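Supplementary Note 2. Why include the ligand at all?

Several targets in our set were suspected to adopt different conformations when bound, so apo predictions alone were not considered sufficient. For every target with a known small-molecule partner we therefore ran a joint prediction. The input for flavin-adenine dinucleotide is given below.
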Amino acid sequence: MVTSIIWFRRDLRLSDNPALTAAVAAGGPVVPLFILEDATKGDNTCRDYDSGTGTACDWWLHHSLNALEGALSAQGMSLVLRRGDPEQILRQVVEETQAAAIFWNRRYEPGGIEHDRKIKQDLRLQGLTVESFNGSLLAEPWSVKTKADGPFKVFTPFWNALQRNRGQVPVQAAPRIPQHPAVRCFSERLDDWRLLPRNPDWANGFSDVWQPGEAGALDQLVTFLEKSLCHYKEGRDRPDREQVSRLSPHLRWGEISPNQIWQATLMASEKTGKSDGLRAAAWAFLRELGWRDFSYHLLYHWPSLPARNWRPEFDKFSWNQDSRAFQAWSKGNTGYPIVDAGMRQLWVSGWMHNRVRMITASFLIKDLLIDWRQGAAWFAQTLVDADIANNSASWQWVAGSGADASPFFRVFNPITQGAKFDPDGSYVRTWVPELSALPKQWIHKPWEAPAAALEEANVQLGKNYPHPIVDHATARQRALATFEAIRGDQ
Ligand code: FAD
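The joint prediction is reproduced in token form.
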């Protein structure tokens, strides 16, 4: 009987996992394998593990692998963990297990694609069966094309084409794994990978907020569909409410597939008696999954997206090198409450609401004139959902340097954004407790509050909460002038 390897990568789940289903269908014993790859070869997530600094994503990966190991052992299998170059490791594991087939779900990062292609070719030359599948997108980047047979640069036509092409893709239940004599294979110990941060353990609050793993992902989906989907259309812009799905870190590691989310959302919205409002909310939500696919579409067709401006005219932009301003931004000490609340939410919980991601990113790029790549790198380290496609595409969207981007002259005003999307200031009060007693008319602009109001709220500007590090109106003018300079050069 043929032994098969399922190479888990960004698909740490048993259900709706086409590679796992194919490995089980091959009929023989299945060896589940996860390889911790070098940053240069894989999807940019693996860093200097021995330093003990880790990233928020590494924290998630540790717990997600634990959860996957638990789910597999309940089915009589044990997860094989190896660290290093996948090409070599696959060869070793094939030799150790006498496997004749390997299955995996595809990835779309620039380094990863070429690497996988080469591995596939080499293994096939050795006579192995190698099959790969789509396990993480609604539609793969090459399958959605313009009429001229090219890639899309604008979201709405991309989204329309995706919906036209997609059809019904049934969700596959987790396969029942037949019992075979165990295939022996050496595995490293997860703890030895030192994925968790130490000295200091800055992720110690994450476990209160997150449940990594497939079961956590499914719970999160069910809770969202039951409680929040109906509010999503209006609520998705409100950081002070819990009305978004918070599925992003689960999607990041493939603990749930976008296909599962798609089908479950449609089912929830189509149950008899459900209103048009719910259907509209469901489509507003599914459209965001469409943005995720669009980010991957851009990354696949423009692999330099994480490193280079999509619009080359931005290469001439003169960015500030200002480490003090960057430090104030990253630690949530800019003096603009909505910006500081977002950056502290990120640090404490590994996640930030989308509206606030836009506000904080705009502040870094436009108020402080700091290169979007510096902000993207900070997000990549601190977000539990750090995703090379979504992160780069979104930062370029805010900067105005990306495809279908927000124009550069759209500068988010942190005061009016705060007042509109956190009208009572409860989001700010949660994350910036120094301001918690300030009345709502001053909560987004404490520097304008009368001395008596500050005193009563125990706010001492410059002492227990900073003065604004820039004046927004002046900074906005400076940003527009800098932008005009690159436009003038064209
Ligand atoms: P929901 O609103 O519930 O949406 C459901 C899913 O749709 C999300 O989980 C996500 O997969 C996808 N999605 C939602 N909004 C977007 C969007 N604007 N672009 C692409 N996909 C989207 N998202 C990441 O997953 N990883 C990142 O590293 C990341 N970096 C970002 C950086 C900046 C500067 C900005 C402005 C946005 C970034 N986003 C990123 C997109 C978005 O903020 C998050 O996906 C979203 O906040 C996750 O919360 P949620 O799961 O509750 O989203």
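Residues 236, 244-248, 251, 288-289, 291-292, 295, 354, 357-358, 361, 379, 383, 385-387, 390-391, 394-395, 398 surround flavin-adenine dinucleotide (CB under 6 Å). Confidence is low (pLDDT under 50) at residues 40-52. Comparable summaries for the other entries are listed in the accompanying table.
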